[in-house]
Amino acid sequence: MLRELVFPREGRRARASSWDRRGANDDHVVVGPGEAHALLDVAGAGVVTHVWITVNTENPNYLRDVVLEMTWDGHAHPAVVAPLGDFFCLGHARMASVTSLPITVVAGGTSGAKGMGALNCWFAMPYARGARIVVRNEGELPLTHLFYYVDFEEHDTPLATPLRFHAHYRQERPTAADVDLADPHADWARVTAVANLDGRGNYVLVDTAGAGHYLGCTLSVDHLDPIRSGGWFGEGDDMIFVDGRPGHGAPPTPPTTPDANDAWPPTLHGTGTEDYFCAAWGYPAGVQHTPFHGVTLMGEPERTPLEYAGKWTMYRFHLADPVRFERALRATIEHGHANCHADDYASVAYWYQTPRAALPALPPASARRPRSDRESFRAYLRHRQNH
């Protein structure tokens, strides 16, 4: 990338920001409950190169209540729909520092303790006939201070690519366990023998038709209801289905009714959750940041039973190894081996593709808000008592 800077580049640098139009120092906007504010609304061709956002509000859950939407080329539907925090790799509405190549968050000290931080995104986002980026406050309290920069380039002719940046939030609260967790015989030793070759029941990260490439995801887990005697959530394999192509070493017998977006078997079949996120052996380093993968929030299994494990958030970016698809992509991950856990899962997937139909609607803000740590641990204890 640094070597490319010696060559001339097309385009004119531009910026939309919250600067005070009177020339004073009130360089922010206020976004009331139920209101929306456009960070960028431009016509013509160009590329968004950087987005910076910081917020001050009394709402402790604003990172889940506030929604970020991005629409390209006047399309009828946004290509990006995600809670603000999860888009920037911040799960469970928790502020934390993030240091990756496409997304960074600067947090800490007194402001960080109040849930404030600087959110940055560096994904390139091209458009041919206009771009619109909106922040929507679905919370019950105002954003008293919304500061932002959107850096972009104006081009006379569009970039020679049909692909557009997409990102989408999903959640499953809780995931549906494929075993009876109340069965005293349904323990880890028995579950390990269960086969899951087609990914049915897996947590779905993204499911889309078209052509493009998958860039990765951020995943948040609240580990509420694990299988007996084997509570670590990280045994869930990633399974990615691409254009109906079987993966290497896959069993030869297909299902009787394969689906175009969920062809059997997986094209890419992994070995475990922390393995997909480029770690091993239960995230021994804890919170960690690298350009392509990391853990931004770590549970505290040392203070509680291992089967609980607590709240976790992790990210994996396929920047050097994008998953290319020509017709369809379905990226999934097990919630425990053979989907043996009933946990709260939430995610944002990132990808480029040709324009697609509307993304699935987000759950309402009230349904997206995370449990408090106390509520989470109490839920775990209730499940253990009932089992």
Would you write up a description of this structure?
The protein is mostly beta strands. The chain has 2 domains: 3-155, Protein of unknown function DUF2961 (Jelly Rolls), CATH 2.60.120; 168-386, Jelly Rolls, CATH 2.60.120.1390. Helices cover 10% and strands 37% of the residues. It has helices at 62-65, 84-87, 109-113, 188-191, 273-276, 365-368, 373-386; strands spanning 12-17, 29-31, 36-42, 45-57, 66-72, 80-83, 98-99, 103-106, 118-121, 125-127, 131-137, 143-155, 164-172, 203-209, 212-223, 238-242, 268-269, 288-289, 293-297, 310-317, 323-325, 328-333, 344-353. The strands form 3 sheets. Strands 3, 5, 6, 11, 13, 15, 18, 19, 20, 21 and 23 form an 11-stranded mixed β-sheet that branches. A hairpin with a 3-residue loop joins strand 7 and strand 8. The termini are far apart.
Summarize the structure.
With 387 residues, the protein is mainly beta. 10% of the residues lie in helices and 37% in strands.
List strands and helices in order, with pairings.
Layout: E1 12-17, E2 29-31, E3 36-42, E4 45-57, H1 62-65, E5 66-72, E6 80-83, H2 84-87, E7 98-99, E8 103-106, H3 109-113, E9 118-121, E10 125-127, E11 131-137, E12 143-155, E13 164-172, H4 188-191, E14 203-209, E15 212-223, E16 238-242, E17 268-269, H5 273-276, E18 288-289, E19 293-297, E20 310-317, E21 323-325, E22 328-333, E23 344-353, H6 365-368, H7 373-386
Parallel strand pairs: 6-13
Antiparallel strand pairs: 1-12, 2-12, 3-11, 4-9, 4-10, 4-12, 5-6, 5-11, 7-8, 8-9, 13-23, 14-22, 15-20, 15-21, 15-23, 16-17, 16-22, 18-19, 19-20
